[in-house]
């Protein structure tokens, strides 16, 4: 698992990781079609074996451990089919820096007034919201 990745959407930070899945414990939702929540990118890592990844538009591609990671945009539907008996996969969830604490720790999102103030209050200064 990479702590962060850089893509077209900028720098993304890992806030969660699923267990390693094999043929005997692969969740049905991954076979039929899975999509993440808004603001969550999914990184599919093939640890061993071969896996067919199919997107909602029907395009399919076979991934292996040597292929690298397959990253899906928020709410992009995809499904997986294990092509070899020894296949193992893991999903990692990524988000933008602004959503990290909200996603990782289940905290409420930063209040809009605080977010707006970050551009006007110099670094190292206190912000009294009282």
UniProtKB/TrEMBL annotation:
One of its GO terms (biological process) is methylation. SUPFAM superfamilies: Clavaminate synthase-like. Its EC number is 2.1.1.-. Residues 17-91 form the TehB/YeaR-like domain. Residues 93-130 form the Tellurite resistance methyltransferase TehB-like domain. Keywords: Methyltransferase, Transferase. It holds the Pfam family TehB. It is an enzyme of class 2 (transferase). GO terms for molecular function: methyltransferase activity. It comes from the Bacteria. This is Tellurite resistance protein TehB. It comes from Neisseria meningitidis.
């Amino acid at each position: 698992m990479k702590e962060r990745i850089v893509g077209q959407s900028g720098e993304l930070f890992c806030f969660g990781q699923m267990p390693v899945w094999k043929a005997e414990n692969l969740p049905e939702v991954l076979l039929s079609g899975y999509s993440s929540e808004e603001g969550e990118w999914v990184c599919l890592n093939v640890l061993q074996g071969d896996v067919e990844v199919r997107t909602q538009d029907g395009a399919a591609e076979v991934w292996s451990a040597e292929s690298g990671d397959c990253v899906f945009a928020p709410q992009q539907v995809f499904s997986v089919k294990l092509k070899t008996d020894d296949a193992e996969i893991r999903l990692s969830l990524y988000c933008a820096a602004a959503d990290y604490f909200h996603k990782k720790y289940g905290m409420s999102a930063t209040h809009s007034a605080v977010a707006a103030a970050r551009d006007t209050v110099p670094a190292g200064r206190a912000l009294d919201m009282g």
